[in-house]
TrEMBL record:
<dbReference type="InterPro" id="IPR016084">
    <property type="entry name" value="Haem_Oase-like_multi-hlx"/>
</dbReference>
<feature type="region of interest" description="Disordered">
    <location>
        <begin position="1"/>
        <end position="20"/>
    </location>
</feature>
<dbReference type="Pfam" id="PF14518">
    <property type="entry name" value="Haem_oxygenas_2"/>
</dbReference>
<protein>
    <submittedName>
        <fullName>Iron-containing redox enzyme family protein</fullName>
    </submittedName>
</protein>
Length: 357
């Protein structure tokens, strides 16, 4: 019998360049056969990942080494890495390293958003609306792109967002088998739209590729990973953290609710900004699609999804709030990074990384 080829498909992205000693250790390990003894990762996992323990002064949310390490580990659960054996997905030594890194990430998130308020299931939709209203005081990235950004800045923004939008909906889909009843039906309803209602040409990831092509960008999956900073990776890692852990299913739903509740207006602005720069319907279709769809998703996510889950699981209300708060807080950090860099006349992408053609 022929041996099973467990290497990821040729369409998967190549492994990225390391950004520190520990991401380098993981990336080099992935080039080998999983299960080797002794594992080159065992000592790191056993050490408890000291670079991100409390009191070191290292900010995990902006740490390039930590965020890349997490992204590399999480991607094994999505498309995998070109030339990397798929058995690494559940290799115990790698999971130990990932878990230690996740602990540092989680501590930073809890410090960032603080303790959830006391809430009842009935009060949850209103609390989510209040979080979103407060987020309106954040950096007006969508306004900048709608009114002032030139084509180079818009292309740069799309490079950042390609890390998520080329796998759009996939992280939240992990929640479907972990729900029942109304909440499950609500999540499926939202996800069906994200996947184009069963039509490959209407999938949101496909529409986003049209935007990238109009801007002259390379639309291959993961093409710009080396170019984006930790702030961009953290947004993506947050959803994977919630989606891949059943214990965080409430936070995953809160994240999706906040995501949908803050989507419609910014996407209208993005579409308007791209039209201002000469974008044709193919270029703006991704954003225009979200204006209408997410206005509907907002209500489904807040009431039918989070509200139903909270009613069935009252203990999960703080988790739902936490997921929404983390979503909004990391989006704010991302927007601050872009606007600060642009105001200073420099790129928000990583120095020395080839970002655009």
């Amino acid at each position: 019998m022929r041996p099973v080829d467990r290497r990821s498909a040729a369409t998967a992205a190549p492994l990225p360049e390391p950004r520190g000693p520990l991401s380098e250790l993981v990336i080099e390990a992935l080039r080998r056969t999983p299960g080797a003894s002794p594992s080159p990762l065992a000592a790191v996992g056993d050490a408890g990942y000291p670079p991100w323990t409390a009191g070191t002064g290292t900010d995990p949310l902006r740490d390039e080494d930590l965020q890349l390490l997490l992204f590399v580990c999480y991607e094994l659960h999505y498309q995998g890495w070109h030339g990397v054996d798929d058995r690494w997905e559940w290799e115990p030594s790698l999971i130990a390293v990932r878990s230690a890194a996740e602990a540092g990430f989680e501590r930073a998130l809890r410090h960032l958003v603080g303790a959830p308020p006391r809430l009842t299931p009935d009060g949850l939709p209103g609390a989510l609306a209040a979080l979103v209203a407060a987020a309106d005081d954040g950096p007006p990235l969508s306004v900048e792109l709608a009114r002032r950004a030139d084509l180079a800045r818009f292309r740069e923004f799309v490079v950042h967002r390609s890390i998520y939008h080329l796998k759009e909906a996939d992280p939240h889909t992990w929640g479907i088998p972990r729900l029942t009843g109304r909440a499950k039906a609500a999540l499926v309803e939202i996800q069906m739209d994200e996947y184009g209602g069963g039509r490959a040409d209407r999938m949101h990831a496909t529409l986003f590729r049209g935007t990238m092509r109009w801007l002259g960008l390379d639309d291959r999956y993961g093409r710009y990973l080396d170019a984006v900073p930790a702030q961009t990776l953290a947004i993506n890692n947050l959803i994977s953290l919630f989606g891949l852990h059943r214990r965080w299913r409430g936070a995953l739903l809160g994240h999706l609710a906040a995501f949908e509740m803050t989507s419609s207006l910014p996407n209208r602005r993005y579409g308007d900004g791209l039209r201002r720069l000469g974008g044709d319907p193919e270029a703006t279709r991704f954003y225009d699609e979200h204006v209408e769809a997410d206005a509907v998703h907002e209500q489904i996510a807040a009431h039918d999804l989070c509200g139903a889950f909270a009613a069935e699981h009252p203990w999960a209300v703080p988790e739902i709030w936490f997921g929404a708060a983390c979503c909004l807080a990391l989006d704010r950090i991302f927007a601050e990074h872009l606007l600060t860099c642009w105001a200073g006349g420099r790129s928000a992408l990583r120095a020395g990384a080839l970002a655009v053609r």
